[in-house]
Predict the 3D structure of the following.
Amino acid sequence: MILLVGPPGAGKTAFCEQVILQSLAMETLIIYVTTKYDPSKVEASLREKGLGKIEPGLLSFVDAFNETVGLSVKYRPDTIRADCANLSSIGISISKLQERVGKKGVLLVFDSLVSPYLLSGPEVVRFIRWSHNRRIA
């Protein structure tokens, strides 16, 4: 487990994007939990950084952004929606995606824990432990 902490502009997102791109190049399955952006924006940013065509199922999203801010979005077969104010909702979505891909060794990436922390701070620490103990990655 790696937890990156730093001020805005320190390079946390850039580091995560490079890890994701390298992991996809090695055909590692990734579940990306997004709380700050729409999955399409995440994917566009990865494409700007060199993401080419990837096999379906290698990159899946838990969209905890659009549900939380109340935006309607077009259906994506690689995405399950969750509410970042409800960590159980995120946990269930992660479990569903892991069942869908059906493999161990999945890289679990959170774009940010700021929104869930602001909504339910003490629960975030328990949630991180739960995610780590499930040995998804």
About this structure: The chain has one domain: 12-133. The mean pLDDT is 81.
